Amino acid sequence: MIEYIQSHPLYIPFLVFNALVIYEIYKTMAGKNKGKDDEDDNNDGGILVGDDDPILDLPPGVTLPVSPKEPVLSE
User: Fold this and answer.
1) Residue 31, SS3 per DSSP
2) Second label for 60, Cα 20 to 30 Å away, from 27, 36, 48, 72?
3) Alpha-carbon gap, residue 65 to 43, rounded angstroms
């Protein structure tokens, strides 16, 4: 191994550079995901889904399907 390092003098700086790049990526990703776990437990966001169907503002000529097995072509 010492012979390889002596014949390729940029091997050690290359390894150090790669280690620094991996460390910076890890640090960046850990910083982004730092508060994610706390936000997942909160129930203060999103849309509440009730038992009623939503009122859709559909364009003229577009209707809701009667059943999923039968396509609605025109009524």
Assistant:
1) helix
2) 48
3) 32
Percent of the chain with pLDDT over 70: 56
Beta bridge partners, 64, equal none
- Report CA 35 to chain centroid distance, whole Å: 15
CA distance 42 to 8: 54
Separation CA 40–CA 70 (nearest Å): 39
Q: If you search the block for the tokens 């002596």, which residue do you land on? A: 6
Secondary structure class of 48 (helix, strand, coil): coil
Name the residue among 57, 55, 75 with its Cα closest to residue 65. Answer: 75
Beta pairing partners, 70: 67
